[in-house]
Specification:
The protein is of the alpha+beta class. Strands 14-11-13-12-16-17-15 form a seven-stranded antiparallel sheet, with helices on both faces. Strands 4-5-9-7-8 form a five-stranded antiparallel sheet. Helix 8 crosses helix 10 and helix 11 packs antiparallel against helix 12. The protein is globular, with a radius of gyration of 23 Å. The two termini are about 30 Å apart.
Length: about 475
């Protein structure tokens, strides 16, 4: 490893005098690079506090020295929010040692977890209490609660349960001044002025550092059903979504659209993943239902299949007959991001458009990109809430490096179409450093003015995750 940039020596000495020795783990590659390899840190001082008081000490000392702080949660973010690739060396504040589940209030359907708890561990603690924490995404084995809230993560169950912010009742956080906000309320109703919780959630560490959260739990569904149905095209999938709503109502947890290129990439890079169909259907829909004792998911899925087939929407399908088969179907969906990573995308797009615009967006974007070059498109995602991952890949035999010069044009092309269709160029991954220019280009000017005013008021030294979300 090459020599790493250092923070000012007086600040490093002050930090080491104020905190226990175990607060300073070695700064290894894990904290220097994000998953896609597009951002790499030049260095800094890695600090891993164990308590909220220690976090507050770090923030106060860094603020006094005018040195930036980059919060680091699970490191799974895909927009560079956790990596400062430019500017002076920062304090890299890792939350991995703040990893306790403090309390579970099963009768209240509430769990209090520190920011460094891995999502899968929260899900496990909820299961132990016979409850469900419904936030679910492909990186749940490594993503941590603090980062998930800081980015307002979505995942596959937004259709039924909402984004991360909808699953949070209260927060504990350290503000840019070093003050601790003790907002870990378990109340569902609390109209006492500005809601700092919603201000910090989705702010990507630019307004403060989340250290703990009171999370909502829900009853575990007694009956669950999963099916993957081959659909004619995205328009048919959208029509099928309406049928599912008519039959299954609020038992619908997830409705995922999967393009055929996803199956192709899995076959190329992860042959151990069992695919449900002989060929690679152009479009499929993954449906997940869950309800109480009186709900019959198999009967509901059978009716969905029949009505879809009668309407010419559904061409084939598989209904899981066991938890193992259900898990295999979900493994297909959750393995697609890893297959994408192994192929290597030229440009990835986490976008959302109004649901009715999805069928028009996909061919429109594909046709527009054909004017730039020849690519493979892997489009998949959460059709139930309009969030699609529209990712552009090289043709076989080429790599993303062969198209690096085309990447800005590809991104601009896709995002312009999304904006024209009333959508968002950042649906669930956040802005980070990757989409700062996009935020400036596509956001309402009044919104940007308000955001800058909030940032200046809470963080006048611009020390909190400098370079992310807003440029100074």
């Amino acid at each position: 490893m090459t020599d790493l940039a250092k923070i000012p020596a007086p600040l490093e000495a002050s930090l080491k005098a104020a905190l226990p020795p175990e607060t300073f783990p070695d700064l290894t590659e894990a904290w220097l690079q994000e998953p896609r390899g597009r951002y790499r840190s030049s260095g800094g001082c890695l600090v891993a506090p164990k308590t909220v008081d220690e976090v507050a000490r770090v923030v106060r000392l860094a603020a006094a020295a005018g040195v930036g702080i980059v919060p680091f949660s699970g490191g799974t973010g895909l927009v560079g929010g956790q990596i400062a690739a430019e500017g002076p060396a920062p304090v890299i504040l890792s939350l991995h040692r703040m990893n306790r589940i403090r309390e579970v209030f099963a009768e209240e359907n509430v769990l209090v977890a520190e920011a460094g708890v891995v999502l899968a561990h929260v899900q496990g603690a909820a299961k132990d209490a016979d409850r469900l924490f419904p936030l679910s995404l492909a990186s749940e084995g490594s993503a941590r609660i603090g980062g998930l809230l800081a980015t307002n993560a979505g995942g596959v169950n937004v259709l039924r349960w909402g984004n991360a912010r909808d699953l949070c009742l209260g927060l504990e956080a350290v503000l840019p001044s070093g003050e601790i906000w003790h907002g870990l309320t378990r109340l569902h109703k609390n109209n006492t002025g500005y809601d700092l919780r919603h201000l910090l959630i989705g702010a990507e560490g630019t307004l403060g550092i989340i250290t703990a959260a009171a999370l909502k739990l829900v009853p575990r569904p007694a009956r669950r059903g999963v099916a993957m149905l081959v659909v004619r095209d995205p328009a048919a999938a959208l029509e099928l979504l309406g049928i599912v709503g008519d039959i299954a109502g609020d038992t619908l947890s997830a409705f995922e659209l999967i393009g055929g290129m996803g199956f192709t990439f899995l076959a190329e890079t992860m042959p151990q993943v069992r695919l449900p169909f002989e060929g690679h259907p152009a479009w499929s829909a993954l449906i997940d239902l869950g309800g109480g004792d009186g709900f019959d998911p198999d009967a509901a899925l059978a009716r969905i299949y029949e009505r879809g087939a009668e309407a010419g929407l559904v061409l084939d399908g598989v209904i899981a007959r066991s938890e193992r088969q259900a898990a295999e179907l979900w493994t297909v969906r959750e393995s697609i991001p890893e297959a994408n990573r192994r192929i290597g995308s030229v440009s990835s797009h986490d976008i959302s458009v109004p649901l009715s615009a999805v069928p028009a967006f996909i061919p429109r974007a594909t046709q527009a990109l054909a004017q730039i070059g020849s690519y493979r498109i892997n489009c998949f995602g959460h059709l139930g809430d309009g969030n699609m991952h529209y990712n552009v890949f090289p043709q076989p035999g080429l790599s993303r490096a062969d198209h690096e010069e085309e990447r800005p044009a590809i991104k601009r092309c896709v995002h312009d179409i999304v904006h024209e269709m009333g959508g968002s160029v950042s649906a669930e991954h956040g802005v980070g450093r990757l989409k700062v220019e996009d935020l400036e280009r596509y956001s309402d000017p009044a919104k940007l003015t308000a955001m800058r005013a909030i940032k200046a008021a809470l963080d006048p030294g611009w020390i909190m995750n400098p370079g992310a979300v807003l440029r100074r």
